[in-house]
Design a protein that fits this description.
Helix content: under 10%
Strand content: over 45%
Order of helices and strands: HEEEEEEEEEEEEEEEEEEE
Low-confidence stretches: 14-30
Structural class: mainly beta
Strand order of the largest sheet: 5-3-10-7-8
Oligomer: single chain
Shape: rod-shaped
Number of strands: 19
C-alpha cells in the first residue's frame, strides 16, 4: 500500500516514540521509562509495655511487650497455689486485685506489675461485757472469747466460720455486727465461703 509523505512521517514518529519510550497522546507526551513518583508506606508505630510479677505468681506475657499503635493488649495474672493477686499497678498507680488487665488502643509506652499474697483472710472478733463467744471453723480449732476480750486470726479462702454467742445470766444478746452490718438478737452467726477480711463485734444488754 502506498503512503503519502504525511502518513509516512506519522508512522515513523510512532515507531520512534515506541522505541525510545515516549507515548504521544492528545496534548503532551508521557515517558514510559520515567520512575514513578510513589511515596513508600510509613512503618507502623509500635510501643512497649513492660510487664513484671512479684514472687509467688506470674504475668503473661511478661518482659518488654511490643504493641502496634492503636492495638489492644491483654495481660493475665496467675498466682501460685495458696496465693492470690494482691494488687496490679499500672504506670505507677494501684488498680486493685485484677486477675487480668487489658490496655485498649495503645498510644504510648506503659508498665504493668502484679504482686501476690497468701490466700488467707483476717478475722477480728471483739466481745463486749455481758457474755462470751466461741468461734469454730473449717481450718481453726475452736476459740473462746470472753466478754471484754478480742481475738484476731486468719482463715483460708473459702473457709466457713460460726460464732456461738452465749449471754450471761439475766443478759441478752443485742447484736452481732459484721463489717458494719448488724444482726440483732442472734445466738449463732455464720460466715460461708469467706473471700474478704471480717471485723465482728458482739454486744449484750
Amino acid at each position: 500500500m502506498k503512503r503519502t509523505f504525511f502518513e509516512a512521517r506519522i508512522f515513523l514518529t510512532i515507531i520512534v516514540a515506541v522505541v525510545t519510550g515516549w507515548v504521544i497522546g492528545g496534548i503532551g507526551t508521557t515517558n514510559l521509562n520515567a520512575a514513578e513518583d510513589i511515596t513508600p508506606p510509613s512503618e507502623p508505630i509500635s510501643h512497649t509495655i513492660t510487664a513484671s510479677a512479684g514472687a509467688n505468681g506470674s504475668i503473661s506475657p511478661s518482659g518488654s511487650v511490643s504493641v502496634l499503635g492503636g492495638a489492644n493488649q491483654k495481660f493475665t495474672c496467675t498466682p501460685q497455689i495458696g496465693y492470690r493477686v494482691a494488687d496490679v499497678v499500672i504506670d505507677g498507680t494501684s488498680r486493685g486485685a485484677w486477675k487480668s488487665y487489658t490496655f485498649y488502643r495503645v498510644a504510648g509506652d506503659h508498665s504493668i506489675s502484679v504482686s501476690f499474697v497468701l490466700d488467707v483472710y483476717t478475722i477480728n472478733v471483739a466481745v463486749a461485757l455481758g457474755g462470751s463467744v466461741v468461734v469454730s471453723g473449717t481450718s481453726i480449732t475452736p476459740i473462746a472469747v470472753n466478754g471484754g476480750d478480742s481475738t484476731i486470726f486468719t482463715v483460708n479462702s473459702g473457709d466457713s466460720l460460726t460464732l456461738t454467742v452465749t449471754p450471761e445470766l439475766d443478759r441478752k444478746v443485742v447484736s452481732v455486727i459484721d463489717n458494719g452490718a448488724a444482726k440483732y438478737r442472734v445466738t449463732t452467726y455464720s460466715l460461708t465461703n469467706i473471700r474478704k477480711d471480717h471485723t465482728m463485734r458482739v454486744y449484750f444488754k
